[in-house]
Amino acid sequence: MILHTCDSRQYIRRKGYEQSVLDVVSDAIFDEECDNMVVIKGIDIYSLCEHHLVPFFGKVSVGYLPNKKVIGLSKVARIVEVFSRRLQVQERLTRQIAEAIEEAVHPHGVGVIVECVHMCMVMRGAQKVNSRTTTAAMLGAFREDVKTREEFLMLSKTN
């Protein structure tokens, strides 16, 4: 691995590969008797395709059903950032975000939807400028309970 002396490069490297979910979440987990779905949507995401080394970017929606614990809202966006600052494929990124939320607060369920424009589709080969790729990860109640999943999908679409 090449070590860079430029502070901004070290910052980016540290933010992507050397930063853990625990570093980001720190003390932002709170005991709360909340049984309502929490949805954070429209989180901007910027990453690099590990196959083509070109950007992909878009929006993320994250929802979870608390189980006596909630996470600070800004920490959800930071979890998204930890994984997006790595060379990635969108499918893995979606799963990693869901698993990180699950690990952080042990909710009844987690749902993550990622919709991105991939510059490898826009610039290279296919050159499909209006294409979007959507991936979803559903864990716990979001996978097992149709009504929970449908509520999350509906809430993640509304403006």
Report on this structure.
Pathway: Cofactor biosynthesis; 7,8-dihydroneopterin triphosphate biosynthesis; 7,8-dihydroneopterin triphosphate from GTP: step 1/1. The chain has 159 residues and is of the alpha+beta class. It has a single domain, classed as GTP cyclohydrolase I, C-terminal domain/NADPH-dependent 7-cyano-7-deazaguanine reductase, N-terminal domain (GTP Cyclohydrolase I, domain 2). The protein contains seven helices and seven strands. The strands form two sheets. It has a five-stranded mixed beta sheet, with helices on both faces. It has a two-stranded antiparallel ribbon with strand order 1-4. Strand 2 (38-49) and strand 3 form a beta hairpin. Helix 3 (73-84) runs antiparallel to helix 4 (90-105). The longest helix is centred in the middle third of the chain and has 16 residues, at 90-105. The radius of gyration is 16 Å and the shape is globular. It starts with 6 loop residues before the first helix and ends with a helix. Residues 1-6 have low confidence and may be disordered.
* Low-confidence parts: 1-6
C-alpha Rg (nearest Å): 16 Å
Q: What percent strand?
A: 25-35%
Roughly what percent helix? 40-55%
Helical stretch tally: 7
